[in-house]
Write a structure and sequence with these properties.
The protein is mainly alpha-helical. It has two domains: about 1-50, no CATH class; about 80-150, no CATH class. It has helices at about 30-35, 40-50, 55-80, 85-100, 105-115, 125-150, and strands at about 1-5, 10-15, 15-20, 25-30. The strands form two sheets. A two-stranded antiparallel sheet has the order 1-2. The protein starts with a strand and ends with a helix. The protein binds zinc ion.
């Protein structure tokens, strides 16, 4: 089965048209090639996102998961291949950690999230927040190192 594109007016197979629920034959009136050439193609994508919120959510989750897996794999691979550099990084990082993660610094980090006065912070909270900061910094540094060595 074929139909003609409303833009380039060429007769094409149905496969050549973007799927579109609202159209009679389930396909949009414009062929894929023309959609791709259209400077306003984000308009089509926007419409599609609007019509398929569940699919968008699934795609987003999938993308996030894939990227997380990829990053973790890359970090692991890098650690395995660069044990010496990792040691240097850790040493450097441990030094920096003791330099920057003072109680006051950690307290202000807690405050920016929880909006509570320092007097209400427990040592446990400070400990947890410090660990969290350490971890995210180490991860950031590792990611940078991975990017540089690639
Ligand atoms: Zn066309």
């Amino acid at each position: 089965m074929t139909k003609s594109c409303s833009k380039c007016e060429k007769e094409k197979e149905l496969d050549e048209f973007v799927k579109h629920k609202k159209c009679k034959d389930g396909r949009a009136g414009v062929c894929k090639k023309c959609v791709n050439l259209d400077p306003n193609k984000s308009k089509y994508h926007k419409q599609w996102r609007k019509n398929n919120p569940d699919k968008v959510k699934k795609l987003r989750n999938k993308w996030a998961k894939n990227n997380r897996d990829k990053t973790q794999k890359a970090v692991k691979r890098w650690l395995k291949n660069n044990p010496e550099r990792y040691k240097v990084l850790t040493k450097k990082y441990n030094k920096k950690r003791s330099e920057t993660l003072h109680d006051d610094y950690v307290k202000s980090a807690i405050q920016s999230v929880l909006k509570i006065p320092c007097s209400e912070m427990t040592p446990e909270m400070i400990h947890v927040k410090r660990e969290q900061l350490m971890f995210s910094r180490a991860l950031k540094e590792l990611r940078r190192a991975v990017n540089e060595s690639n």
